[in-house]
Amino acid sequence: MTKETPIIPSIMLVEDDLDLAEAIIVFFKQKNIKVVHYTDPTSALKNIESLEVEVVVTDLNLPQMTGVELMKNLRNNDCHLPVVIITASNDVEVACDAIAAGAYDFVIKPLKLPQLYIAVQRAMNLSKITADNTVLKRAVEVTRGANPEGMIGFSPAFKKTFELAKRVAKSNSTILISGESGTGKEIFAHAIHKWSNRKDKLFVAINCSAIPDNLLESELFGHAKGAFTGAYEEKIGLLEEAEGGTVFLDEIGDLNLQLQAKLLRVLQERKIKRIGENQMRNIDVRVITATHKDLKAEVIENKFREDLFFRLNVIPIRIPSLREREEDILPLAHYFLTKYNALNGTNIKDFTPEAKEFLLKNQWKGNVRELENTIERAIVLSPGPQVDIDSFLIFKEAEEKSSDPVQSEGAKNFFSFSFDDKFLSLEEVEKKYIQYVFKKNGGVRINTAKALGIDRKTLYRKLEGMINDQSSP
To answer: What integer best gives the mean pLDDT of the chain?
Structure first.
């Protein structure tokens, strides 16, 4: 294991009094804080962008410009680092004016270094909180589609998809987004809505695999009062609710054939009928769908309507897997590092070379979602200023052990079965394993489906098949 290099905080000092500057540098070095010193503000402004400093400490009276003017120039250059001003004792009123102009704090000459140290520490805390808030705001905006330009991707595969999505966003055509689980299909749907002419209207998302079929129809189309048991009042469906906006139907491949027929009619006629009503209602919505399934194969197997597929596949957009965009792995990892530093109140600066190598070589079958979860866990586990490979391997080894059916007798989750000379088919093995996980989860279906990594409807279908098999003579 390589020895981690500690991250030393830094401040910029703009001071033309060389004796005072030297005293400040020596004092802060003892406090393990690096000081980057400039004697004139012009040089400081020129180099600020290339430096990684957290606080600016400046004398009020400087050649070329005052400390307040320096601060204003920093703000004009979009640099919002906290500024601590050093002022002479007879300039207190001027210093108060500097605070009003945006300075964080001031200290009075003759300078007491411990007092300056406290001011700098407080300013550093402010700098971190401001940076954390900026990262969290950006993360929320990207996830909700409010800031599509904040989506991270530098690889050719990502850029191609990004530009295609941006190009077709202004149209009203139906879009089918495909890609593996965890690639960010919903984020792209949000972005397309935000780039479109419908951006000021609602974006309504619904996961077709997360809602039982009997409830999904009501969610989409709405119902009249008394239409069925439990319909105590009328309900507006999501297709109506999103009038003028965008409806995103995630996991469209899990929609049953009956609802597929009704959705096809909506796309053809741009009208809906609530359950229990005869009245047709006009709607104006843009429909975006997404799936991780191969819908062409589903059509061949008669699991998905061919006519609906052609209606949905007007503009196909495929999101590349993370394996196809290796150039984006480290930028994404650093983004998640900053995000979860902010959420957890930690200050981990980087990854060790071994950790970066692990990130680049891992297969990431769960794509960006798996990468994000991995970084979050590593930040919680990491004891030092950098994420080491051990923070990844603790969970990797646990996952490898849990995926091995031949475990030690003391293992918490031990799955085994025996057979004579006859080998079991894969279907039989699957049934036995589902029964095992179902029993381990106390017969709770939603937890069983989550543990198996399948949607609830798929689990229900498999469990019903097992019951039917057992009841057959």
So the answer is: 84
